[in-house]
Amino acid sequence: MKRPTVQGSLFQGEGHLTDVVTQVIARRDDFQGLFDGFTTMRAVSYVVSSDLLRDFFQKRAYTEIEVVVGDDLTEPILRQGLHDKPFDTVESLADRVEDGSLRILVPRRTIHTKLYILGRPGATRIIQTSANLTETARKASQVNYAWYVDLPPEDPFVQRVLQDYQAHTRGCSLFMQDLVNLFRERDTAPRRELIEVWVKGETVPAPEMEAAQALQEISVQSLLLPGDGETDIVTVKLPEAPAARKELERLVKPLKPAITSGGLAVSSSAFINHVHATYGIPLMRVDLERHEVRLGLKGSILSLSQPLPDAATVDQGLEHIEDYVQTIDLGKTPDPGFAKASMFEALLYIFFSPFANEYMRRKRQAYGQVDPKGPRFLYIYGPTQNGKTTFFRFALKLVTGQNMEAVPREEFSSRKIRGAASIGTVFPLAFDDVEFSGKRWVPDVLKAYWETWWRGDLDVPQLVLSSNEPRLQDWARSRVKRLDFDVHFASTEESKRKLKGLFERDNDVFRWFSHLYLRHLTANSEFGDDELHVARVVMRQLYDHAGRTVPEFFLDQPVETKYDLGRTRWADLIYKRRYAKLEREKERLLVHFPGEMQFWEIRRFEGYLPPEVKARQEGHTIIIETPVEFDAWCPPPRRKLWPLGRD
User: Fold this and answer.
1) DSSP 353-398
2) Structural domain tally of the chain?
3) pTM for the full model?
């Protein structure tokens, strides 16, 4: 290490001469030596290495570090910088932030200062240098320069530099605090999962959360208005945090709100129209106190809950639904019973969707963070011409009483989902015919939707998806309820006339359904893993009231329990037709598909596997790593034994 140069008489302390030491940083030891022998640090550095921070604690035994990161990068970009770091590095930093020994401050504007204030009992070292707190500086890949001075903590010059340092910290935000808050809110969830979600940027920043709270208050007030057109203005208090206020003002800017010191005022009818135009779904709220579901659509407010009318009227409504499900007979399907049961169950799910937040609240009460997953998203699978788009039109009209379309595939984006989740509507966010290829954000967003974004005091719309992509990733199998529309419709004059007649009929069945559902929620507190349990109970009450026979496709259990299309297809593949060759090894199964099969066909079979079966595809082979679970799900046929005692 090159000997430092001592400069005298540059600083005069109280009654003593202070020595200033200069240092050319040309080798690793030059940088290391500046920080030896101290235990605390306050620093300003344009960029900072996370590995170096960890080493200060683990290898140098530092007990406290506060650092201002001078580059005015946004917190998501800083998070992204940790994306490729080892899990242990991120966890170590998070632990330090949580216990207060590490504070990483992010400024609102660029700071190019490089200043280090080191401490130990009885001594303070002040370092002014061109070197950042990075691995590059430590390795001396570049030549830097520094001077430093060692003084008693009470020295007036030390106090002056500390004041200058504090000036750098004004207006800064604390980095990783949202991760610490996530740890506290989800204290029983595995930290690795929470860190993975946070690093990928799928937590909701505090300003967005505060703005969402204000938006939800606007939604609540808008839907509580009488809807007579006389009272139209709603007012909410502006968030106190400047960033949150700015975010709220940005979101409502198209409405031209009136902003005063007392709050923000907007037209409720304009807000209702804005929500539908921007997010493709209307405002909807479940009001347990008023015992009703309220809908804001096209500037008006409607109640979608009403007591049951006479039996004949309910009977007509149920007959209308059955007539639609029976249109399966106009198409081609290998199993009409399965196709009808799937379509009816999908309709039940649409009816359930406005109550998904209530389901989630009861799940949290029952399981806490032992199972943080939310109600499974509905995933309707089927190739083209299988009625998915028409189903959405029919189901959404039953809910609203008006013609509505699902959100088109072109608008399936993280931004759309985040925005819809912030406005306080419980209307199902249905995306039609979505594609997942090329959308790397999908796993992170759908994992975080209920597990991280949702809070008990904020309502979000349940997601409903349709697609012709059969293969579901492992993460999705436990987070989606898949229903297969295993039918193909050809457009004929008969089918078009039939559908036209069905769509022209009015039906208040959802209003009766919601009335009974709310009564059930008020009277019962039980909870079960089947999201549609209460929906089945309520729908059966409608049939009982009407005195109508329950159709065979109305199941008293999840459709995937009685019908398993994937199991049927696998059994046909390997045991009946033996189109694929099954090779049993000691701890795994190899399923060899013929060379003429396309890769997308093989991926479809992988997508049929249930969550408990772990598998992966390699070329024309699917490797099943949990053979016991596979055999339990799709057992080999029993061999027939010849009768004994034959002559």
Assistant:
1) GGGHHHHHHHHHHHHTTSS---SPEEEEE--TTSSHHHHHHHHHHH
2) 4
3) 0.68
